[in-house]
Amino acid sequence: MIIDIHTHIFPPEVIQRRELFAKRDPSFNLIYGDPKARMVTFEGLVEEMNHAGVDRSVVCGFPWRSLDMCRQHNTYMMEAVRAHPERLVGLATVNPVAGKACDTELERCFEGGLKGVGEISADAQGFSLQDERTCGRLAHAVDEAGLFLLLHTNEDVGHSYPGKTPTTPASVYGFLEKFGEVNTVLAHWGGGLFFYELMPEVAKVSSCVYYDTAASPFLYNPKVYRIAADIVGPGRILFGTDYPLLRMQRHLGEIESSGLTADEKEAVLGRNALGLLGETY
Ligand SMILES: [Zn+2]
Fold it and tell me: Which CATH architecture describes the domain 3-276?
């Protein structure tokens, strides 16, 4: 069973009129303003999964600043999971800055079959992971529903790229100190937070954290799989691609030669994700 924990889909109208949405949302403009930046509908995602032999995908929308845009995108996410209930698990996007309206939208999404919240990008959406009230709203809703949160995170150092934000290990650590009991997937290896789990206090607040491998081939030497598995254990690493940013096959090939054992690969590629989704292997 192969599960890609981190993919993105867009409603056809956003793909067709991307310039319009780029004018409305600065982060969207940064990542997708370039007409060469790939975007797919759910049909395109399923085609890629079939091509790469991926059984299921967890799909995110986009961390829009406007709750209204989040709502439109969430409606499309619900349509996607209704069309492919066996293949797609949808997450809801909200901007917690919207306050009570955010709670109402999350209720609608969970009733509509979405299974978590993400990808949330604090910087793109205009709040801080240190802000207890805003983050508390998200953490509480997810925890109460028994679901999980997927947070965008970045490295403190290294090359810059569109979408690289100041949401780095220091700010994620602040979040975990307050809301460490919530199941949280940190995208892109948590910006390197896994390394700091060698510090006992960091390991302690990170016990409910999963690290996804999204975009790893663009960021890290393939040794990262072995090293991360040695530090946090293979049970908290999830295969994710950030498709369509990266082709699934390329990422799978890298994991194949990562030096993980067959059992570790099985955990990273699907078993861990199934556990997080509350399903058994
Ligand atoms: Zn992503």
Answer: Alpha-Beta Barrel (3.20)
